[in-house]
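Dear U.,

For the methods section draft, I wanted the exact inputs and outputs in one place so we can describe them consistently. I've listed the two proteins in the order they'll appear in the manuscript figures. Please don't edit the token lines directly; just add comments below if something needs changing.

First protein:
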Amino acid sequence: MGRGVRLYNTMTRGKEDLRPLEAGRVRIYSCGPTVYRFVHVGNLRTFMLADVLCRTLQYLGFQVEQVMNITDVGHLVDDQFDRGEDKMLVSVRLEHKSPQEIAAFYTGAFLDDAAKLNIRRAEHYPRATEYIPQMLALIEGLVQRGHAYEAGGTVYYDIASFPAYGRLSGNSTADLRAGVRGEVDPRKRNPGDFTLWKHAGENRLQVWDSPWGPGFPGWHIECSAMSTSLLGERFDIHTGGSDNVFPHHEAEIAQSEGAFGHQVVGCWVHGEHLLLSGARMAKSAGNFFRVTELEEQGHDPLAFRYLALQARYRAKLNFSPEGLAGADRALGQLRRRIASWSTAGDGPRGDFDQRFRASLEDDLDLPAAMALVAELGRSDLAPGAKAALLLDWDQVLGLDLGREPVRADLPPGAAELLEQRALARAGRDFATADRLRDELSAMRVIVTDGPDGQAWRVR
């Protein structure tokens, strides 16, 4: 069983020991996609954080239960003050499909894109539209407890009723008042009050009955309802992007703790943005790539995963075509080395595994783990030991390191000669290795030897 796992908690702004509510078992809720458009690789970096977290905890011996929501109810452009046009309705108008068809199509696309990055499936993918009764029950409870009020068929959360509002993000009620842009909704008691249930206008396509009349849920209440319905009134970890801290997760805390009267989430874990030319990658800015586009450019999708593992999840990562191409080359070379090492003898493994686990336990320090991958390659460990360690670590890295290297450009028979030569070198039969090198050279395959084993290229 893993011990000593420390995670950075956004709420306390420091690393804390992970102490699951139930020994040996960790329950995690991850904010998932809004399915009115394709996700981009910036979104996928956030989802990859949740994946690496789950993989790490499982690798260290914990049982993990993960819930990732699917937001299939459109929400407003300005989530902070509930103004703007519904995103789902925009897609409906542009694509001439029903909201259900839009949601089903983009949910499928999200799952396909996540699979290309080896993001493992969560145990549960609740859809917001399936949890309307639970949302209504939470809202009714908040009204009864004095945390919410109704005006004109819309229900608002009264942030003045929850003194801890702003603790996660560092915002104060005064800051929220100062940040209000334009005309304040006159029905609100406080400009920072947010919508729990919104009265449906005439053209609204997604409408449900409620005690306050026909309407639809606010974005924030969806996650409170789905997380507590599936994981209970208390669970261990909540993940998301740094852009979720406010207002979304701040609102979730007010709703969930207001409804149940106690702390619900043990630790808040947030990943930073992916940048493109120094600017945040975002759908609204139009500066984004789908993982399928990277594939169409000839890159292995897992090259993006390799690139993302080079940075701490709490640090911004700048994406560039050059960086991706370098990651693609490095990943291919690593797979070729492992294929070569796997055929050779095993041996002692030193302290590498202990150091790998220590890097994971230190707030998912994947750059340190990837530095160990490079150090291991340069070490004097037996080739078989190197391969065994890397294939074991790949349970966390998720890079498909055991995948057969692509050798479509090798002449017929060259792959077999390369394997024979790797075996000869491992057995210190250098005469045979030299002969095989000459045979490969005659086939235009140039082989070079280094501390990491043999590498090749076609002349």
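Second protein (the one for the lower panel):
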Amino acid sequence: MKTIRNFLLTFTCLISFSQLLNAQTDPAIERIIETGKTDNQAMQHLDILSNRFGGRLVGSDAYENAAEWAATKFREWGMEVEMDEAGSVPVGFNRGPWFGRMMGEESMHLHFVTPSYTSGTKGVQRGHVLAEPKTRAEFERMKGSLKGAWVLITGKSNGFPVDFSEKADLKRDSIISANEAAAGKKLPANSDKTSQPEYKPGDEPALFYREMKEAGILGIIQSAPVPLVALYDRKNIGNMTFENLPSTPDIKLDEHQYDIIHQMVKERRQVILEFDIRNHFKPGPVKYHNVIGIIRGSEFPDEYVIMGGHLDAFDVATGGVDNGSGASPSMEAARLIMQSGGKPRRSILVCLWAAEEFGLLGSQSWVDRNREKLPRISNMFNRDSGPLAPTSISVSEAMWKDMEAICEPLASINPDYPFNLKKREARARPLKPWGTDSGPFAVEGVPTLSFGLEDVKGLNFSYMEIWHTERDTYDKSIAEYQEHAAIITAVVVYGVANLDHLLPRDGYYLNE
């Protein structure tokens, strides 16, 4: 009996080893690599996302068009498609062209941006320039000159617009009242002034915002570091309707030009600025969707491997890096798998997430609505760190043998890009999502293995120079890295999907 048991155990191990070996010697892997080397279309997908659609903010026509196009490509490649409704915004926003210039004693073209979901101009608008008032007395003295003026406000732009909500107005009123009360206090004649604490007036950019708007200003202008960042009106968007849209342009001007203009205004020199800003809205609510391409599993269709990245992008540029550099290799990885004719055992979900830039809304919505699937997700691969080459992956001890076999073909793809498997120590499961779409999955205990990325060729790439800025364009992505990423992703995702078991979660998170 013992001999029979040992034989059965040995036979079972041989079958399992054979299945694992076959998973990695599947001819589909060779075809993925060959097609990826000779007909890689990652940059073609990025060209369309960045240069045909451009910035893809949820609520915009560009996002809706990009989502429909991605769904069409998935269907063209033979995949199932789910347009997964994930939420809506109360109004839509489309950005048109913009320009500005300084006229008068000196002239220059102005380098500026406006945050999304803020007002444009009413055609070309020209006006004089004033520095904002900081006390009631200053406001009263200059209120007659505010009509038709562009107003320089204090503070440095962080990409978000000035808050004009009722709560913000109350805060400003409180600061103004405190400043006036402090200014009105008089010390006794015989008091020691040096012993009195000096009162520093409170400040807030556009401190008299409501009053200046009522006085007829053309817009506000704030100093902005270069490269310029333009985000969206996160504090007011939830309360916007087509009847109460913002009406005062909020301009973020190159800090160097701001300083020149501010100095001229201090010297009471003639400064005339002219702007044409075409920010347009559309009635809502406007629904947004995650685009999910499905490669249905042949044996375990209700088990999953997820790969992808967010489809939305801020519209001050064209989303070529954040996150066209994640979405396009994921799309190409899906195409390579489909072109290979491979039949993965479990389902592959290629998820192009919506509204990541608005707070992971698309991925969080999916997690909330698909909790029964979470224990059956082998891994969630997310690409959202720029267009660098994947050169490693860190895996737990329990995953090591599976991932060692899956990653074995990667060394043969390109000798310039060696690939390393690294040991991953268990870490605590996060209590809150981190700042990309794998975050909501990690909170729920789903493994989120991701590739280590490197600038292998020393091209001096700097993600933070591009992230959320005007420089986020197609030409900042690195074609060689993007194409390599598509091949690596396809091979690894296909390999994980083709195992005869889910990747073990033992030791991935602490105490689990």
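Candidate sentences for the figure legend, describing the second protein: Residues 397 and 423 are 7 Å apart (CA to CA). The first strand starts at residue 80 and ends at 104.

Thanks,
Y.
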